Each structure stands twice: as structure tokens, then as C-alpha cells.
Amino acid sequence: MRLVVIGGVAAGLSAAARARRADPSLEILVLEKTDSISYSACGLPYFIEGRVQPLNRLVRYTAEKFARERGVNVRTGAEVAAIEHARRQVALAGGERIHYDKLVIATGARIDRSVLGGSDQPHVLALHTLADASRMDAFLRDRPLKQATIVGGGYIGIESAEALRARGLAVEMFESSAHLLGRDDAALTDLLVKHLATFGVTVRLNTRLKQAPDEGLVLLAAGYRPNVELATEAGVQLGATGAIEVTDRMETTLGGIFAAGDCAESRHLVTGRPTWIPLGTTANKMGRVAGANAAGQRDRFPGIVGTSIVRVCGLGVGLTGLSEAQARHEGFDPRAAIVQSGDRAHYFHGRPVRVELVADKRTGRLLGGCIVGEHEVAGRVNVIATALHARMRVDEFEHLDLAYAPPFAPVWDPLLVAARQLMKQL
Ligand SMILES: Cc1cc2nc3c(=O)[nH]c(=O)nc-3n(C[C@H](O)[C@H](O)[C@H](O)COP(=O)(O)OP(=O)(O)OC[C@H]3O[C@@H](n4cnc5c(N)ncnc54)[C@H](O)[C@@H]3O)c2cc1C
Description:
Layout: E1 2-6, H1 10-22, E2 27-31, H2 44-49, H3 63-70, E3 73-75, E4 80-84, E5 89-92, E6 97-99, E7 102-105, E8 109-111, E9 124-125, H4 130-142, E10 147-151, H5 155-166, E11 170-174, H6 186-198, E12 201-204, E13 217-220, E14 224-226, H7 229-233, E15 257-259, E16 266-267, E17 274-275, H8 280-294, E18 308-312, E19 315-321, H9 324-329, E20 334-342, E21 352-360, E22 366-373, H10 377-389, H11 394-397, H12 414-423
Parallel strand pairs: 1-2, 1-7, 2-3, 7-15, 9-13, 10-11, 10-13, 11-12
Antiparallel strand pairs: 4-5, 5-6, 8-14, 16-17, 18-19, 19-22, 20-21, 21-22
The structure holds flavin-adenine dinucleotide.
Flavin-adenine dinucleotide is lined by residues 6-12, 31-34, 41-42, 44-45, 79-80, 106-109, 127-128, 156, 227, 230, 261-262, 278-281, 283.
């Protein structure tokens, strides 16, 4: 039995490692087209900022180390050009054919450069891979640049804006929609635009930049698409999101072929519908499940609630579930409460934290939340995420037994204060 995995980062290596544990006798081969595997793309903005150095600190395993410690062979520089499922083989770009019994597609996502005219110029960069980061760092070192233009107001654009400010550049960010962070939330966007402005980042919302400016550094952080061409050419079906359709066992519509990570959809547990929210945390979990099932075990990935966290010039922003506007769009009858409160006792230097909770008036069910603050943002958004997984109602959430001691939290946690406010509207 041979398992072949296409893609050697989060989802692919999680799948391979889990398959190895599930079946020590399985032959496993990971094929990665670039020369690097197992790196944290999430750390790239902090390398550009100068906080994480050198770049290879972001690399967890080399191919040799993965073989030695995880018992899995990885071939780098091995691009899969086609999947020939009828013969159970993949064709490499050089023509070599490799047989598989089970296949995991973990090809990730990429930036579609066609969203910006002139994006083939050398000063138009992306920040997606180690090579991209290295290129951007060299570009910044070699030139006395004053200005950066960022295309895209998602978390990569925003984290990069902070990094480029730290490198001394003035930053202008263009976002084609009315929102930042892909969250349909006008009040949050307004807050973030004002906050970014105080750090020298100018945001232009509702502005689709058609052509790259001629000067400065241009970062293309928009137009993310799942890498699905290999899969579709092999006959694997895509879902409505444009990513690969999978079951909760991460199996595609072709038996024996699994998909995981940024190339695959997942189920949104609040809406119940398929969604495409490509994140490293999800990629690792999906990969584990795909690997277990490909190796003959039974495991399932129930889905996600859309949790993320991002640093915005010193401010933590945690998001989970749906905003009020998104909830309305999904057919709920949403109500929202926003409270501004201290994140710990005032005599322990409590700082303001903004908590928003969204719930459905018809059922009282919690639908989403957002935390903006300086401390404990991850902890608080994770409480909301847990409640979303448990399909909690606000009247249940209001009575959660949350921790209190003056150095950590106020006696009434801001989450509970927000829940109490929300109850008044339900
Ligand atoms: C700047 C940045 C910051 C991020 N920050 C966060 C964060 O803070 N939190 C978070 O949860 N997520 C974050 N992410 C997202 C996270 O990095 C991705 O979700 C994760 O890397 C997806 O893993 P993956 O294995 O699905 O895909 P990838 O990491 O994209 O790996 C896919 C691999 O497949 C290879 N491949 C593709 N096609 C072929 C082929 N035909 N043959 C062989 N190999 C192929 C590619 O070369 C690539 O190495 C960030 C991403 C970026 C770019």
C-alpha cells in the first residue's frame, strides 16, 4: 500500500505524519514542487518586520529531518503535473509516473495575479512563501524606499502593513470591498481604519486598484484562490465555494482521493453550509483527518466556526462566527450587543476591550463574536468559538463560570457583560 501526498506544508505533512502513526507499514511519499517544506507562512510578516530572524527559523522540518523523525519520505522539486486516477498514478512535470493506492491532495492556495494590472513587474510582490519573503526583504534592503502600496485589506495585507511601517515605509492600502478582514462589519472596519491611520497606514475602502503604481513596493495580498486545477483535471468535483468538495472524512468525489487544507472546503458549523476560510489551523486539522482515513482508520472533521485572530498595529482582533450583517445575510434574525469594558481590574492596569456578541432572536442561539483589545484577545474569542461549537444560547453563555483574579480579568468578565446586554434584546 502506498500513500502519495501532494504538497509539503501544513495539510500535506499533517496528513503524512498521521498516516504514519496510523499504519507503521504504509509506504508514504510526499511530493512538493518547491524546495522548501514545513514552514510557517503565518510567521512571514514578522520576518519582514524584523522580529523573527533569520528566515529559516520559520522552518520546522527539512525533508531529511522529516524522514528521520517522522518516518516519511519527502521529495522536493517534485511537481505533480497530472493525476491519472484510472491507473492510480500521478505524473510528475518531468514525465515520471508514481503509483498510489491512496492520494491526499494538499496543494494549498495561491494569489491570482490577474486581479492587478502590471502585477508582473519586479516591484509587485506577494507574501505567501519563504521565497516571497526573502525576495521582499532583499527588495527592501536594496532600495531606499519610502512608499508601499498594499492591495487587499485581509489579515495578510494588514499584518504586512504593520511590518512595512516598522521598516519605515508609508503605507497605503486598497480594499475593493467596504470591509477589512473580510468581515462584513461596518463599525469594526471604521474602528480599524482609524486605528491604522494613527500608525501611518491610509486605507482606501471600496477602491479596486486596477493597475499597479509605477513606484515603491506593491504588495499583492488579494485574489486568493484554492489550487484546484490538478484535482479538477482528474475529475474531482469542486463545491460552490470553488474549493474541492470533501466529505467529513476529507474524501473527495473520487474514491481513494482525499483533499485537505487551503485547497478544500469545510463546513461552517454556524450556517451549516460549505465555506472556504483558508487558515493554517484548519489545514493542520483537515490534514490529520485525511491522513488517518487514507491509512484506513476512521476519523472525521466536523467543520469550523470561522475563528481567526490578527494583530493590527498593536491591537488584537479576534473574530469568530458571523457578524450581525453576515448573520442577516444568512437568513437569521440577528441582534448584537457591543460593550467596552476593562480587560482586568483597574488597579492592575486594565485596558479597554471591546466585545461584540451576535445572536439569533428567534432561537437565542449565539452566532458570532468579535474581540478587540490589547490582552487576552485569543482567550476570549476562543470562549465564544467554543460556545459556537456547542451551539449555546445566550442565556446559557451568560452564566459561564469564567476565571477571575485581578491580574487577569475583572470580576465580571467583559464576555458576560456583553451577554447580559444581548439578553435584553432577545
Ligand atoms: C503571510 C501569511 C500569514 C498567515 N497567517 C496565518 C495565521 O496567523 N493563522 C492561520 O491560521 N493561518 C495563517 N496563514 C494561512 C496558512 O499559512 C495557510 O492556511 C496554510 O499554510 C495552508 O496550508 P496548506 O498545506 O493547505 O497549503 P500551503 O501551505 O499553501 O502548501 C501547499 C503546498 O503544496 C505545494 N504544491 C502545490 N501544487 C503542487 C503540485 N502540483 N505538486 C507538488 N506540490 C504542489 C505548494 O508548493 C505548497 O508548498 C497565513 C498565510 C500567509 C501567506
